[in-house]
Amino acid sequence: MTAPAEITADRLDLREKEMVNTDWFNEELDIRTKKTDEIVCRFLPEEEGYARRVIEAMNYSVLAGGKRLRPLLIRETAIMYGANPSLYEPFMAALEMIHTYSLVHDDLPAMDNDEYRRGRKTTWNVYGEGMAVIAGDGLLNYAFETALGVLKACEECADPAVSFSRVSRALYVLARNAGIYGMVGGQCADIQTQLHPQQTDEEELLYIHSHKTAAMIESGFTIGAILGGAPQEDIDSLAVIAGNVGLAFQIRDDILDVTGTQQDLGKSIGKDAEEGKITYVSLHGLEGAGEKVRELTDEALVLLEKLPLKDRFLPMLLQSMTGRNK
Amino acid sequence: MTAPAEITADRLDLREKEMVNTDWFNEELDIRTKKTDEIVCRFLPEEEGYARRVIEAMNYSVLAGGKRLRPLLIRETAIMYGANPSLYEPFMAALEMIHTYSLVHDDLPAMDNDEYRRGRKTTWNVYGEGMAVIAGDGLLNYAFETALGVLKACEECADPAVSFSRVSRALYVLARNAGIYGMVGGQCADIQTQLHPQQTDEEELLYIHSHKTAAMIESGFTIGAILGGAPQEDIDSLAVIAGNVGLAFQIRDDILDVTGTQQDLGKSIGKDAEEGKITYVSLHGLEGAGEKVRELTDEALVLLEKLPLKDRFLPMLLQSMTGRNK
């Protein structure tokens, strides 16, 4: 997993060059996030009829305003490989709906029992527990309804057989990464380790990170490329990049739980140690954890540079994801 | 909605003839239900890895042993139109998984708070609430993973373009009938009316029945036909039949809540009246409700007779669904 020394040196040069581009990146991030948000919202269902209440709860949850990172990644990679917006935009909305449903259910009293998220009342706290359960179900289901709509759009494409094949594959990636072999699997292991924190080993910890977090990031990195007909080699690279970023992102989270301030993070810190939770930091120390984040980031950057990047946005986004201080 | 007199008379003749076939029907029902059960179980995920616990909870829920009515209907109509088993069998499993997830979430303390179902502990009661929430999520997601696998099988079919088109349509029907425009929508209205039982009118009551119950029965009646390339007219008839059966099934349930015995039904009776719930019986009386069930059943039977039935199984199944005494 360690990148050779010369590659690391190259990367360091690159990093210095990009320091001056920070303003450009921040501006672009803002523009592209807004565009992503606009696309996601376009696919939300109308709040009408006898099911109005559950649709309101679903839309309330999606509109709580996340970073829209996963759909943003779909759009970036889709544009990189020239995918058709009529194919990838519904997938952007679908992935964000799946991410949102997982938060709605995670926040339930039977799960993490969170009353607030990003300073806003959680869905169950506004609509009641029962409605929050079916709002999550409704979002997961509507994600598939939305993405499946793309199969119909294929019939209008220049080469329907090619489009069908790509869309089928993208649908399958979307589904698999969200289920028991992806996010739900990671949540299961996470619930189990919370019950028996002392029995968790590094293998299980890495399983949780790679499934609970990285699987959905992998959908973000690969679906756009699949829809754009990227070479298999590139799709494989994007999956490795996503795995590294997802893991680095989580280890960084563990580090911040020790070094961050409550004010910076907007959440209580030191919670992991208090709960006797095994984390990458408790296993390898702050320095070891920091080194791992750098290694994972470097390897991902090296792979990313080999892809047909349109500009410096993706490498900078990747660094901001793993090197974030909040 | 009333069938003309001569058709009703025909139907009565038919009904008499079929009385002698009851043994045959019961035997066939047993054989075909077992076959359906075997197919559904073949698609259940292996209980292994770090996600083992949630997979156990999912399989426990599916194996609780329902009537397998919805997948049975898919198989019957698929055979009627000569669909390929590699196309329709995964849909049978998927539809049963969706039906099962809805029961798992319905039973949660935050919803109906049921500790037992069919004499067996409910999923949350065995695995805990958090695990039951994600087991339901896992089932819904795995239903789509399972059904989406069929898109791959299309590539091996004699005419991939035709298969893709039918499977796409079946996938969309599966998704839509389960979501906010189907079952989840019905559940939402049902939760709302439980909060305000006196404000429910007949229109809303019919909405709940046609969405919470009939939508999933519609998937059962139409998906097999769609996959077999049935004429649009037949698919439309099957949707009407499903709507009638679903509604008749629910009204019959309301009737039994008044006339049935606890022992027959295996659940507490008189619950609706106690809770001040508006039902078809409270609106139209026992006689009016019984007449409605007969009307709906007759109309469905007339439509069914026009389809290319292989034997008398489906008409008898339909009557057993609406005329059941438990």
Report on the architecture of this protein:
2 copies of one chain form a homodimer. Chain A is globular. Helices cover 74% and strands 1% of the residues of chain A. The first copy, chain A, has 326 residues and is mostly helical. Chain A starts with a helix and ends with a helix. Chain A has one domain: Farnesyl Diphosphate Synthase. In chain A, strand 1 (116-117) and strand 2 form a beta hairpin. In chain A, helix 2 packs across helix 4, helix 10 (202-227) packs across helix 11 (232-259) and helix 11 packs antiparallel against helix 14 (280-305). Chain A has helices at 5-19, 22-42, 52-62, 69-80, 85-106, 123-127, 129-154, 160-178, 183-195, 202-227, 232-259, 262-265, 271-274, 280-305, 313-322; strands spanning 116-117, 120-121. Chain A has a two-stranded antiparallel ribbon with strand order 1-2. Chains A and B meet through helix 3, helix 5, helix 7, helix 8 and helix 9 of A and helix 3, helix 5, helix 7, helix 8 and helix 9 of B.
